[in-house]
What does this fold into?
Amino acid sequence: MTQNPQNTQNARITLVIGGTGKSGRRVAEKLSAKGLPVRVGSRHGEPAFDWNQPDTWTAALEGVDRVYVTYYPDLAFPGAAEQVGAFSKVAVASGARRLVLLSGRGEEAAEVSEDNLKASGADWTVVRASWFNQNFNESFFLEPVLAGEIALPTGDAVEAFVDVDDIADVVVAALTEDKHIGKTYEVSGPRLLSYSDVAEELSKATGREIKYISVTNEEYRAVLRENDLPEDFADLFTMILDGRNAHLVHGVEEALGRKPKDFSDFAREAAATGVWNV
It folds into this structure.
C-alpha cells in the first residue's frame, strides 16, 4: 500500500520487496515514520509483486525511485541470481535509481546476485547479514522455543546473531542518505554465540528450561520434509559449521555510528511481549 503523508506529495515512492517480512516490515515502518511514501511489494500487495511472475514487476515499480530488495527464501537458492539481475534491470529502466540489497554473509551464491544487481547501473548498497535474532520469535525457531527444545545440525559452532532492527536501520540509512552509495556493509551482533549459548539466554529470558540438541544434517532434513519446508535450508547450516561467519563484523557501527543490539537484550524484550509464554 502506498502512503502519501502531507508534505511528501512530490516524493517518489520506495518499494519494499518483502514488506511484510521480518526486515521489510521494519524498513517500511521506519520510512513511513519519516513521512516517506512506501509501497509494500508482496503477492498480496496493491499492485501485487511476485518474484516468479515478472509481469508484475513493472506495475509495482511505477513511480518508484528506490527499492529495498529482499529475496525469499534465500539468495543462495537456485535461480535467485538470475531473477535479481533481471528485476534490477527492469527497476532501473522504470526509473528506480537506488537499490539496496539484503544479502547473505558468507554466501558465495549470494554474491552472484550482488554482482547482477550492481550491473544494472543503479546506485547500490549491499547489506550482508546472517542469522537473525528474530528467527527465534518470528520465524522457524519459534515453535522449538515454545516446545523447550531446539534441535539443529550445528554442533558447537558459533554465530554472531544480528538483530533485524539493526538491519532495518542500516537499510533505511542506505535508502535515504547518499553517503552509503557503493558500499557493502557486513552486519552482526556484538558477540559470538553457540546454539547452546542461545538456549541459555532464552532460558534466562523466559524463566523456563530451553535445551539445545545437536542432530545430524540428515536428521534435520527429515524434519524439514515432514514440515513441507525446503531441504535446502539444511545446507545453510553448513555455513555455520565451517566457521566462515565465526567472527564479528562491524557494518552497524560503520553505517550508523553505534553498537548493535546484544542477543540478551533482544531476548529480554521479546520475552516481555509474551511471545514465548506457554
Summary: Confidence is low (pLDDT under 50) at residues 1-9. The CA atoms of residues 18 and 217 lie 29 Å apart. The radius of gyration is 19 Å. The beta strands are 13-17, 38-41, 64-69, 98-104, 123-129, 149-152, 158-159, 183-186, 193-194, 211-214.
